[in-house]
Design a protein that fits this description.
By secondary structure, the chain is an all-alpha fold. It has 4 helices and no strands. It has a domain at 48-136: Cytochrome Bc1 Complex, Chain D, domain 2. Helix 2 packs across helix 4 and helix 3 packs across helix 4 (120-136).
Length: 140
């Protein structure tokens, strides 16, 4: 029995050392504030209304909702997300959000303030742009 004790202890030590230094899953850093939240595939082209909407979105909405509506860590949610599919958040919900603001209810970014600088027509073009992005990402 004693002749097996030293090799067993040696194997145990080698196993413990190997376990301690064995590579594990790589550590992933927490997303940085301002980073995109969603990966967005862009459509091949935008309709004329979608082009106008992109310009209005970039001027007003992208500061919080990120480039191409991908969301912005620490600022605002992605609009290219299943939560905002037309059957759950219809176009009227976007119009009301821009006109009256929205209380936080799906995300923890805080309330969205009204955007009085946008006309109803501009909001409709932004909706067209967002819907085109959503369709390009399988959100219908």
């Amino acid at each position: 029995m004693k002749k097996y004790l030293i090799p067993a202890l040696g194997a145990l030590c080698i196993g413990a050392i190997g376990y301690a230094f064995w590579p594990t899953e790589p550590e992933t850093a927490a997303p940085q504030e301002g980073a995109a939240i969603a990966a967005v595939t862009l459509p091949d082209s935008l309709s004329p209304q979608g082009e106008l909407g992109k310009r209005a979105f970039d001027a007003v909405c992208a500061a919080c909702h990120g480039e191409n509506a991908a969301g912005k860590m620490g600022f605002g949610p992605p609009l290219v997300h299943k939560i905002y599919e037309p059957s759950h958040h219809g176009d009227m919900a976007f119009l009301v959000a821009a006109q009256q603001g929205v209380r936080a209810h799906h995300w923890k970014f805080g309330n969205m303030p009204p955007q009085p600088q946008l006309t109803q027509g501009e909001v409709k073009t932004i909706i067209a742009y967002v819907r085109e992005l959503q369709r390009a990402n399988g959100i219908n």
